[in-house]
Amino acid sequence: MSATAYSPIQKTLHWVLFILVLALYGLTYGNSLFQRDDPNRALAQWLHISFGLLLAGLVIWRVVMRLSRGAPNLPPSMTGMEKVLAKAAHLALYALLFTIPVLGIVLTWFRGDSVSFFGLLSVPAPFSPDRDIARSIKAIHGLCANGLLILVGIHALAALWHHFVRKDDILKRMLPN
Description:
Blueprint: H1 8-31, H2 39-69, H3 80-110, E1 115-117, E2 121-123, H4 131-166
Antiparallel strand pairs: 1-2
């Protein structure tokens, strides 16, 4: 990998994850537009779970890529505090991107449902349903998802600030060639 840019696979995974996060958030709010007995609501939920599992798999792949290929060097113009904040933000992004799907899986099981990946693989709940626990997990799942969106927004603003104000190559490292 270049010392100034991520690999093409890392770039692709970054942008696919971004699109998936937006799609999952959209499915969550789209789901609330349907009545409880509307089949479209069940479809939206099924898609949300399936795409959430896809997200989890891609996050694992992205982490493996990051560990094996590393990241480009940060510009020398960044202060020590900026570098610490950048690393902390990336760690928080990875943690949330991993934690949210895990919470979603556990939530689905506590609702008493199987976790299905686009109908190709289905894993039944390994324990009895518990609606009270499910409600608690749903709240945490939602809080983490909202936190992820806020962090993604800050991440994007920081990249734009580096590009337009600092005029360094931070944003260019993740853009397609």
